[in-house]
């Protein structure tokens, strides 16, 4: 058993997973790069080699640029809100004095088991149909704005829906992080007369940096490729006000049949995602060492 | 001191209850309005329905072919998850127990799936599926999921297998057990805890996936639940009674599952997220 060699059964065990992975991931990655140099409608056998023209067009595509800006705006607001909210809930729901913690945790996590299509539709109904009447009844003007029809507001409506859906997931990761902190540390701090804010700042937060790293990283990646929720709520409208990068790529490829151009955009998005994730990992890892 | 503590606890509960109410409000409004007649709906979206009007549900079940779509989702999710468990545990076993350059390269190739999101390879994947005549077929979806989602399971399995001491396998080998016997009789049963985590994580992901079915399934008889729900919304975009009924119907399976296995799901998500 100590001898590790590549015998026939090594390949037999790996082959099923690897062959499908090869077929549906590795070849597509390779092809994706290839298609981006061609002009192709996705159906005909004829592809025209156009060199870097697709990429040149991507850089001059005003709508794609807008979509990219929307995606970044979505990402920044979503990541901040979701993590603050999740951290707050996790802090409250790990207090030993709270009875029925599991019930509360369950409720906050519940939206997570729904498909994003359904989540988008729930909020489309709530913000587009019920909120106006609710605002009139309780006299809050905020409820009466055009959540989905006002181009300046619509993107934030999709963020509300996605925050509602995602918070519970990150809350669980933070709860696990907080639970892993040794109780003695808190006891020591309380004896020293530390106020709650002080305890949070100097004990909970530093020890939570690993959880924070995971949550910020995951929420960023997920926001950069947001699709379902926007597709269900606004379809990218009004105008292009809520069109995200991925929605734009989808429309370019499957509605306008520009496969080469669409893959070029997808590669630009991929590069951005890779750069952002590596930058984040490096920055946050450095923070971990500092503390 | 105790009064202060009591006040703090009360404040905490008030915050939590407000939080819970805000979280549940959208559900609440969807459910009450799905039980209204159209005229009731038009009068007010806030008041409770005068009676339980179930016609929206009856009609919607028929219109979105609820039974068939539900079955499609179950088939795709069950076969994909089961297939992934089999091929990923096998691959992860060898990857965890072998040393060598080729093995390391293979592992990192599998890991590259985390860096390259599905969305940036979706176009060539569709082209590939079309070339292999897998479009609009349930088993086509399953095969693509096997290829794309297995790496996550391989990653989790590999980490887990590395924590299992080798001695058990060595003993079995001395007793003359074959590689296959060792894997299926000894290693596989030990993988139970991580297997339930994987089932929950990947099951949720595949069940709720929208983009791949949207790209691959073209005829309504093959639609999965999220896709059928979305198509229903697009077709009947002003029939709110039916839309809300469809929303509820589409959520019910997962909500039931969640409440019957809340502990396992919460545990699965937590341990999966931290290892991943």
Quick recap:
The complex is a heterodimer of chains A (291) and B (276). Chain A has 291 residues and is mostly helical. Helix content of chain A is 73%, strand content 1%.
Keywords:
heterodimer, A: 291 residues, mainly alpha, two-stranded antiparallel sheet, 11 helices, globular, B: 276 residues, 14 helices
Describe what this molecule looks like in 3D.
The complex is a heterodimer of chains A (291) and B (276). In chain A, helix 3 (62-92) runs antiparallel to helix 8 (196-224). By secondary structure, chain A is an all-alpha fold. Chain A contains eleven helices and two strands, in the order H-E-E-H-H-H-H-H-H-H-H-H-H. Chain A has a two-stranded antiparallel ribbon with strand order 1-2. The model of chain A has no long low-confidence stretch (mean pLDDT 86). In chain B, 80% of the residues lie in helices and 0% in strands. By secondary structure, chain B is an all-alpha fold. The longest helix of chain B is centred in the N-terminal third of the chain and has 33 residues, at 2-34. Chains A and B meet through helix 1, helix 4, helix 5, helix 6 and helix 8 of A and helix 1, helix 4, helix 5, helix 6 and helix 7 of B.
Give the topology.
The complex is a heterodimer of chains A (291) and B (276).
Chain A: H1 8-35, E1 38-39, E2 48-49, H2 53-60, H3 62-92, H4 101-109, H5 116-138, H6 154-179, H7 183-191, H8 196-224, H9 228-233, H10 245-255, H11 259-290
Antiparallel strand pairs in A: 1-2
Helix pairs in contact in A: 2-11, 3-6, 3-8, 3-10, 4-6, 5-6, 6-8, 8-11, 10-11
Chain B: H1 2-34, H2 38-43, H3 55-63, H4 66-97, H5 101-115, H6 118-131, H7 138-161, H8 167-174, H9 179-190, H10 192-208, H11 211-216, H12 225-235, H13 240-260, H14 262-275
């Amino acid at each position: 058993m100590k001898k590790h060699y590549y015998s026939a059964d090594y390949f037999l065990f790996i082959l099923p997973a690897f062959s499908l992975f090869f077929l549906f991931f590795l070849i597509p990655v390779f092809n994706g790069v290839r298609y981006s140099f061609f002009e192709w409608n996705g159906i005909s056998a004829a592809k025209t080699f156009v060199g870097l023209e697709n990429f040149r067009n991507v850089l001059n595509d005003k709508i794609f640029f807008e979509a990219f800006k929307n995606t970044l705006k979505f990402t920044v607001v979503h990541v901040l809100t979701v993590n603050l909210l999740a951290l707050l809930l996790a802090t409250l729901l790990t207090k030993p004095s709270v009875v029925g913690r599991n019930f509360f945790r369950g409720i906050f996590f519940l939206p997570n088991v729904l498909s994003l299509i359904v989540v988008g539709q729930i909020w489309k109904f709530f913000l587009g149909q019920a909120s106006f009447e609710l605002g009139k009844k309780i006299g809050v003007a905020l409820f009466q704005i055009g959540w989905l029809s006002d181009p300046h507001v619509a993107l934030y409506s999709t963020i509300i829906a996605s925050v509602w859906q995602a918070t519970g997931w990150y809350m669980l990761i933070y709860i696990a992080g907080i639970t892993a902190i040794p109780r003695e540390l808190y006891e020591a701090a309380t004896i020293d007369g530390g106020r709650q804010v002080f305890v949070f700042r100097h004990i909970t937060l530093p020890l939570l940096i690993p959880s924070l790293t995971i949550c910020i990283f995951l929420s960023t990646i997920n926001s950069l490729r947001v699709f379902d929720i926007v597709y269900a709520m606004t379809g990218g409208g009004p105008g292009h006000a809520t069109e995200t990068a991925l929605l734009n790529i989808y429309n370019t490829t499957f509605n306008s049949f520009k496969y080469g151009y669409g893959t070029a955009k997808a590669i630009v998005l991929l590069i951005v995602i890779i750069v952002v994730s590596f930058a984040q990992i490096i920055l946050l890892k450095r923070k971990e060492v500092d503390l | 001191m105790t009064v202060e503590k009591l006040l703090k606890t009360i404040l905490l509960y008030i915050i939590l209850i407000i939080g819970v109410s805000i979280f549940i409000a959208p559900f609440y409004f969807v459910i009450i309005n799905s039980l209204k007649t159209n005229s009731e709906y038009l009068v007010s979206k806030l008041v409770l329905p005068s009676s339980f009007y179930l016609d929206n549900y009856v009609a919607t079940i028929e219109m979105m072919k609820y039974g068939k779509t539900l079955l499609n989702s179950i088939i795709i999710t069950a076969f994909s998850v089961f297939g992934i468990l089999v091929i990923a545990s096998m691959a992860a076993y060898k990857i965890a127990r072998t040393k060598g350059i080729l093995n390391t390269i293979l592992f990192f190739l599998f890991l590259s799936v985390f860096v390259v999101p599905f969305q940036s390879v979706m176009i060539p994947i569709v082209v590939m599926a079309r070339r292999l005549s897998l479009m609009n077929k349930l088993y086509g979806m399953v095969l693509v999921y096997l290829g794309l989602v297995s790496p996550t399971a391989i990653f989790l399995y590999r980490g887990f297998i590395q924590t299992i001491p080798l001695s058990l396998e060595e003993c079995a080998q001395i007793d003359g057990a074959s590689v296959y016997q060792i894997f299926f009789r000894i290693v596989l049963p030990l993988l139970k805890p991580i297997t339930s985590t994987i089932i929950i994580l990947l099951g949720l992901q595949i069940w709720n996936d929208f983009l791949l079915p949207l790209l691959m399934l073209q005829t309504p008889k093959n639609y999965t639940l999220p896709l059928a729900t979305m198509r229903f919304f697009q077709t009947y975009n002003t029939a709110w009674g039916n839309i809300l009924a469809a929303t509820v119907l589409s959520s019910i399976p997962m909500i039931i599952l969640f409440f019957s296995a809340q502990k396992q799901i919460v545990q699965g998500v937590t341990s999966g997220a931290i290892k991943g």
